[in-house]
Design a protein that fits this description.
Blueprint lengths: L2 E7 L6 H9 L7 E6 L6 H10 L2 H6 L1 E6 L6 H11 L4 E4 L5 E2 L3 H11 L4 E9 L4 E2 L9 E5 L2 E4 L2 H5 L12 E4 L16 H16 L4 E12 L20 H6 L5 H21 L3 H10 L4 H13 L1
Parallel strand pairs: 1-2, 1-4, 2-3, 6-11
Antiparallel strand pairs: 4-10, 5-11, 6-7, 6-10, 8-9, 9-11
Length: 307
């Protein structure tokens, strides 16, 4: 199957060569690489172009396209623009500081074909700490072994709303492009926009067909923990912290999985935001301002215990 990779690029001059090298070293090269430069203010774009110019064999077998945006629109916007240009049967997004294992594209191609997958989630190894997520033991009731390193995900929407599951972090999904025709990332959102996007994609697939959803373990995606990245930003004022898009999208939903998603993300968002504020005063203001959310998060915790 043909495979397109979209890289949103913004100020990753220190990492982009290593990321691209992880693609050049693939045992099955991608068929298409689309790099969307989101108005970088460093040398990221120049470095990427110069590196790929030195890889003629890779470029001979992979269509490479650079898209240069005049204004920074955020990673969701960059991914949307790259997605519009992609033509591969499979598509994945790779952050410009993360790495693919050399066998990932080959294994993805094999698993999608042999197991007739529609959607495959990758487990993650964080760098440099080497923590691995998700915790397979905590998810046993949702997983059925299919083949080496691959599990079928049963009751997928319930599984991905578990606090032990990780989807949409480090763009850890490979999917058939046909399922993305009508779904796009929320623009101008920087927290949990990946989880929101992939949950909507998964709901769309399951509404259309008896889909095969897989979880690939084996640490084929390495996600770099970069100080100063959007997910590790320190906020001087609580008013700068935005609510995740799932809050407004599903606040009135009666669907239990939607409600579980809001609760799961709500707990992560609340803890992360509280820790990201730089003063005790701002933490107090944050807790008071969002005190109305606490009953919902408590109810979520109780429901999860009962499931």
């Amino acid at each position: 199957m043909t495979h397109s990779i979209v890289i949103p690029l913004f100020n990753k001059a220190d990492y982009i060569i290593e990321t691209l090298e992880s693609l050049v070293m693939q045992t099955k090269r991608p068929d298409e690489l689309i790099i969307v430069d989101d108005a970088s203010t460093d040398d990221s774009l120049t470095i990427a172009k110069e590196y790929l110019q030195k890889q003629p064999l890779f470029c001979e077998h992979c269509r490479v396209e650079f898209i240069e945006l005049a204004e920074n629109g955020g990673p969701g916007n960059a991914r949307n623009i790259g997605l519009e240009r992609a033509k591969g049967e499979l598509i994945s997004f790779l952050d410009a500081d993360d790495l693919y294992h050399p066998y990932l594209l080959s294994i993805a191609n094999w698993k999608f074909g042999a197991e007739k997958l529609d959607f495959m989630i990758l487990n993650i190894e964080f760098m440099p700490g080497r923590e691995v997520y998700p915790d397979i033991d905590a998810l046993k009731k949702y997983l059925t072994p299919i083949s080496e390193d691959l599990y079928e995900v049963k009751d997928p929407l319930r599984a991905v709303t578990s606090p032990h599951f990780v989807m949409g972090v480090g763009s850890n999904v490979v999917v058939k492009r046909k399922w993305l025709q009508s779904i796009r990332y929320v623009v101008n959102s920087t927290l949990h926009e990946g989880i929101d996007f992939w949950y909507r994609v998964l709901k769309h697939i399951l509404a259309q067909t008896q889909a095969n959803i897989g979880l690939l373990t084996g640490n084929y995606l390495r996600v770099r923990e970069v100080k100063g990245s959007l997910s590790r930003k320190i906020y001087p004022n609580y008013k700068e912290i935005e609510l995740p898009p799932v809050f407004s999208r599903y606040k009135n939903s009666k669907d239990i999985n939607d409600r579980l998603l809001v609760g799961m993300i709500g707990r992560r968002w609340y803890a992360h935001s509280f820790a990201s504020l730089c003063s005790v005063k701002q933490k107090l203001f944050f807790a008071l301002h969002y005190s109305y959310l606490l009953p919902q998060l408590i109810v979520y915790s109780i429901i999860r215990i009962m499931l």
